[in-house]
């Protein structure tokens, strides 16, 4: 080990120690608003919306002098690029104001006090925080929560509900768990949201539009409870991971006004704000995001969300070593740069590889997709296998790698222990939507999808992922070598795993 390596490890150790000493999360600022809306009083047409009392104004931020240093307490998952975007500043300026932060820092230690130079922009939204990020993702906070038992113990109509979802008939609780697992969104959040819209957990009487648009997302391709939940989880994830990436610094309300999330906000709250902003007129929107909106449903069902808040993303998080997901000596193609892990929008956490083939389209392949690291297979489904790297058997904890489009034939079964590079299955078109034989891989840590580009970019044998101008575009880069994503399988898109 050379002196530079020793120094880097020492700095990282100091940074991790600081994170452990400051593990408490930031206390949310709670400001009151008037009574929340219900589905019966919300109308997207401003001329027909019944008169509602004015909401209590949220507290406002002062107009800071340009570059003024403000106090900030790091929240789970914070990164310097995202903080710079939120406070309208730059990473070098933040580092200059906080010389104890190493330039190689990844995630900030939750609870760490910081000084951030701020450049004021008007139209900041509320500082009220709805739920912590740890209760947004389907992560460690959901261990021990039994959706079926909870729903059965409540008076709401959901406990008697059965519908076709994901290829078979399922109970209401099973539908919640299916969506929570696929999108990695907390089942408690999904229950609170469904209850907010329909009284699913608290009201024995189901709404009349149960088979149409009970969650007020009016799309003919998303009718019924299951598909309404799918759409809700997809849109929530879009807001959450856009904010994580520093890309959601403003959004438009239905009256065409723009609102900028408060720079001190957390990702879960902004995701919920973004969700409701696209659904309700401003008066109903402000009630939905206040203490008497969705937050009240969550508190009534599960208690104070901040009472047991623990950070699910630690400071100085790093990806463990991973290799390319195929065998040595075979030229696979990078067919998809960073794109959605599951659903249609953010998070752009996945990349795609296709095996060599003389025929395009969905054809049987005898090539093997392989384990990017050692682990145990904890879940399989149509086209799916999840590799748990910490070996505890729970994909809600630690590092997990999600594989999609694996053929059922020869696919590793649940409980299979794999070493790095061992076969996990054959690429195919099974599961999800696919126009050609390939595999799709994405990473999660403690239930949170890890964006393919950024501070914790996908790194496979030293090949690092970068976004393109649009989803599925992009590249892998290793030093001076670059592989461009393309479905054409040309030389520029081919990559081969080599001996080290």
Describe the structure.
- By secondary structure, the chain is of the alpha+beta class.
- Among the domains are: 133-302; 331-496, Glucose Permease (Domain IIA).
- Helix content is 22%, strand content 19%.
- The protein is built from 10 helices and 21 strands.
- The chain has helices at residues 3-21, 80-86, 91-97, 147-153, 172-183, 187-198, 225-244, 267-277, 282-288, 294-302, and strands spanning 68-73, 113-118, 162-165, 168-171, 251-252, 258-259, 331-340, 348-354, 369-370, 375-381, 384-388, 399-404, 417-418, 423-425, 439-445, 448-449, 459-460, 463-467, 474-478, 481-484, 494-496.
- The strands form 6 sheets. Strands 7, 8, 10, 11, 12, 13, 15, 16 and 21 form a 9-stranded antiparallel β-sheet that branches.
- A hairpin with a 2-residue loop joins strand 10 and strand 11.
- Helix 5 (172-183) packs parallel to helix 7, helix 6 crosses helix 10 (294-302) and helix 7 (225-244) packs across helix 8.
- The longest helix has 20 residues, at 225-244.
- Residues 1-57 have low confidence and may be disordered.
Compute the average pLDDT. Answer: 89
Topology, number of strands: 21
* Beta-strand content: 15-25%
Tell me about the biggest sheet?
A: 9 strands, antiparallel
**How would you sum up the global shape?**
globular
Helix count equals 10
Give keywords.
Glucose Permease (Domain IIA), 22% helix, four-stranded antiparallel sheet, nine-stranded antiparallel sheet, disordered N terminus, 500 residues, alpha+beta
């Amino acid at each position: 080990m050379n002196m530079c390596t020793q120094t880097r490890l020492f700095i990282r150790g100091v940074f991790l120690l600081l994170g452990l000493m400051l593990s408490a999360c930031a206390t949310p600022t709670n400001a009151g608003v008037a009574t929340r809306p219900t589905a019966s009083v919300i109308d997207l047409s401003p001329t027909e919306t019944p008169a509602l009392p004015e909401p209590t104004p949220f507290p406002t931020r002062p107009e800071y002098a340009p570059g003024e240093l403000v106090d900030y307490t790091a929240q789970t998952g914070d990164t310097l690029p995202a903080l710079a975007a939120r406070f309208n500043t730059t990473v070098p300026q933040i580092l200059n104001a906080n010389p104890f932060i190493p330039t190689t820092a990844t995630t900030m230690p939750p609870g760490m006090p910081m000084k951030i130079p701020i450049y004021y922009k008007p139209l900041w939204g509320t500082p009220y925080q709805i739920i912590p990020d740890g209760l947004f993702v389907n992560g460690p906070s959901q261990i021990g929560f039994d959706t079926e038992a909870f729903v059965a113990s409540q008076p709401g109509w959901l406990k008697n509900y059965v519908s076709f979802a994901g290829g078979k008939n399922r109970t209401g609780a099973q539908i919640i768990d299916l969506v929570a697992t696929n999108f990695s969104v907390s089942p408690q959040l999904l229950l609170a949201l469904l209850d907010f819209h329909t009284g699913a957990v608290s009201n024995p009487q189901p709404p009349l539009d149960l088979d149409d648009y009970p969650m007020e997302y009016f799309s003919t391709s998303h009718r019924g409870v299951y598909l309404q939940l799918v759409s809700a989880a997809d849109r929530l994830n879009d807001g959450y991971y856009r904010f994580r990436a520093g890309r959601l610094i403003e959004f438009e309300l239905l009256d065409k006004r723009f609102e900028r999330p408060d720079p001190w906000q957390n990702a879960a709250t902004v995701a919920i704000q973004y969700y409701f902003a696209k659904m309700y007129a401003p008066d109903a929107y402000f009630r939905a995001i206040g203490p008497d909106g969705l937050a009240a449903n969550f508190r009534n069902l599960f208690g104070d969300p901040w009472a047991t808040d623990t950070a699910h993303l630690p400071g100085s998080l790093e990806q463990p070593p991973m290799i390319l997901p195929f065998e040595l000596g075979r030229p696979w193609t990078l067919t998809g740069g960073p794109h959605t892990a599951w659903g249609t929008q953010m998070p752009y956490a996945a990349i795609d590889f296709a095996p060599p083939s003389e025929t395009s389209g969905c054809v049987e392949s005898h090539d093997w997709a392989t384990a990017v690291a050692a682990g145990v297979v904890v879940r399989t489904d149509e086209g799916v296998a999840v590799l748990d790297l910490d070996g505890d058997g729970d994909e809600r904890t630690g590092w997990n790698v999600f594989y999609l489009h694996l053929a059922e034939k020869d696919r590793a079964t649940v409980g299979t222990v794999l070493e790095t590079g061992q076969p996990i299955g054959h690429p195919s078109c099974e599961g999800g939507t696919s126009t050609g034989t390939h595999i799709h891989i994405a990473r999660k840590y403690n239930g949170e999808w890890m964006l393919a580009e950024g501070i914790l970019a996908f790194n496979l044998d030293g090949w690092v992922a970068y976004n393109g101008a649009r989803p599925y575009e992009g590249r892998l880069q290793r030093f001076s070598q670059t592989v461009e994503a393309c479905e054409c399988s040309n030389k520029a898109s081919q990559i081969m795993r080599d001996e080290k």
